Amino acid sequence: MTYERVAKDVDSWLEQYRGYQPNDFEMIYDDWINQSFYNLDPDVKEKFFSKLDAWFFHTHAFLQGTSFQNEARQRILSVGRVFSEEIENITDMKRMLSVDQLSYIAQQQIARGRLYSFAQGGLTGTGGWLLLGLDYPLMMVMNIRAVQLIGLTFGHEMNHPYEMMISLKVFHAATLPKRLQVHAWDELMDEVNRNEHPYVFEGNDQLTNESWLEQPIKQCFKSMFIVMFRKKIFQGLPFISIAIGAYSNYHLTRQVTDFAMKFYQYRYLLDHKGEERDGSRRS
């Protein structure tokens, strides 16, 4: 059965995270980060992370109102109608299409998002200070949008408060270090399973904390390497810097989109299992 195959694929994907053992460097890094933030004033720390969370919330809301996003939404519906002419809105996608059909449509969005990240990273690799300064905010925006499009494809309206929070939680989990992603996945599953109000998020709305900062630190190292190699020019172009920027941004988007795809696939299976149980009870 298709459902069993997808569930098996998700489980095998999760196994690589469940069996992951952090190396000595990662353990030393965790201790250093925790010690550094332990010495900070709690009020300063709270304000810092609350402002960071607020930026993500505002970014999500901004993206929902852009024409770029509306065009992508209509494109998703158009492809969905190829499989079922009865589709009228986003929520019809998960009711009328199979998980394989939805995954196929989502893969189109993912391929486009990865291409954009690759191109944007390569452009950043040319070494201009303006591009370097805009690189990280742009990468966050592009990856939040990628999660939104995958969620839309699987029939979830991203402008609802609950779905907005879930998609941001997915984005946050996907950008965590590998050793922390299983715990974030389990928290997401708990939230989805206990959801009683489809439009209201009742869980913890905090996104970022000390453990998430590894991603911005990696970004700093990437920028340093780009600056270091931008003078290594071949045929008028800094190919090493371009390669570093392109690969780094592509790798992050691949990590985010893989996580988001597995999450929404598994959520689809959970929703349909729930519908089957409800149907059997009524019969």
Automatic annotation (TrEMBL):
Protein name: Protein ecsC
Species this protein is from: Halobacillus halophilus (strain ATCC 35676 / DSM 2266 / JCM 20832 / KCTC 3685 / LMG 17431 / NBRC 102448 / NCIMB 2269)
Highest taxon of the lineage: Bacteria
Pfam family, one: EcsC
Alphabetical list of InterPro entries matching this protein: EcsC
